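Lab notebook, page 48
Experiment: co-folding of the full assembly
Goal: obtain a model of how the components sit together before planning crosslinking
Operator: M.T.
Materials (sequences as entered):
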Amino acid sequence: MSIIVYIEHLEGKLKKQSRELVSYASQLAEKTSQKVTAVGVGDISREELESLSRFGASKIIHCSNPEAATLENQVYTQLLAEIFEKESGEILILANSFTGKAIAPRLSVRLKAGLVAGVVDLPESLDPFVVKKKIFNGKAFAHSQILTKSKILSLNSNACEVKEKPVESEWEEFSSQVSAPKAEIVDVSKMDADNLLTESSIVVSGGRGMKGADKWKPIEELASLLKGATACSKPVSDEGWRPHEEHVGQTGKTIAPDLYIAVGISGAVQHLAGVSSSKTIVAINSDKDAPIFEIADYGIVGDAHEVLPAFIQSVSKLD
Amino acid sequence: MHIVVCISHVPDTTTKIRFNKELTQLDSQGVKWVINPWDDLTLTRAIDMKEASGGKITKISVIHVGDATTEPTLRKALAMGADEAIRVDAVSSDSYSTASHLAAALKELEYDLVLCGIESSDYNSSAVGGMLAEILDLYSVSSVSAIELKDEGFVVKREQETGKETLRISTPFVAIGQKGIAIDPRIPSMRGVMSARTKPLKVVQGESGESYIHTMVYEYPEPKGSCRFFQPDETDQLADALRREAKVI
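Observation: model returned without errors.
Model output:
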């Protein structure tokens, strides 16, 4: 019996959440005495994948089917289902990312495996199998029991602590006969993989309180000083002050960095839904009653354009 | 062409969420019900496409799983511009049972495109669209931020963390929409509301509805520890707290 972990990568580099996924599987495997198998698909090096053995993956499977070069949902479903069955999988773990959202539901039907999406903690009981997930955009949690023998968990960021657990790992190359229909690709444009919002540990975000597209310099300056990414609230992307790729919130991106700095963002419930899993939140806002302060750990009530330059000074003084 | 849009009925995002005393059921008293925000955008796009298609798209149906109390949500979808509504008369208990009910109803229809929103704002499971596609053995494309009718098929933009791809896909398939597919949801006009009253709303029986997941109990989040405030001239202290206390910079 084994726990299968699907690992995503960006241009051949493991995504930030990968270690967390494997560590989650290892901590679960300690209770169930299962084996942890990590699966990577596509153009990713052996060395990069094998680094996961440090977190408890005792088998690594690399799948190099060329049909999986883009996220063809049926191709991924077939490949992962075959691996799951071949490895006598009992639990499949993946990220609650765009990729996870595309393939986990198909796999759930294919493998007759109950799917809990947005898991925030290790299972609280194994028989019955119960895990906690986020619902209502973070306004509540549900304790969900999976009724099927096979199970799929898609994890939110920060679902568990990353613990080192070095093991020896076995390596396997896998490929399969794939005949699923494909879309014709007309155009591809890639984001800069080094500076991805969803992968950044630090995010500096601006709202309407920044007062205009031409006043974004301090946000960019602070982000670059902290080697973080920039983000914005919905009104800002709606106004066209910033590209909509930067929008974080309910209908935008969901992020969970170590540090989220919200400047001039009042914190509408839709915004909070996209950032509330961040480890530490700093809010700078001129309105002391702004809801952002209800979820912030640290706050300054003041004008963004006065506080931010001073804060940049303070940060650059740290050695 | 016939487009079917799956819609879910959810508490408005600004509604306060409460459960019964035993924490086993949502307390629906005072809840304002709306079309799920992602489905609202996806339906808006379907109607926009129909209007711009010069008669090529002939019909938009909305389909929903729920009991009779959810009909106002379907009437709203008709008022926005859908031509017909189908209510699968069942109360689903998880994403899989919802997808099975929808799939059973869709098997009775002829359609070219099925649209779903990527997530519902109640259970946040992002599962129904993909499950539906797998049950019906249809091609699926997720994270769709734009869709356009082109010749006999559709051109779709898939947008993920890593970048964008433009794909040409032939019908039938399931497209799962996210932000960008439409900018703002369509607000029904007075005329739309009037005409919605006479548009067809069909009720079909649900399947037996197996579930994979059972929600045992709900939980409210713990109130977050209170925010520690600094004065505007105390940015040094803030930077220091982030370094020494929170250890994040």
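Interpretation: The longest helix of chain A spans residues 18-32.
Next step: discuss with group before ordering constructs.
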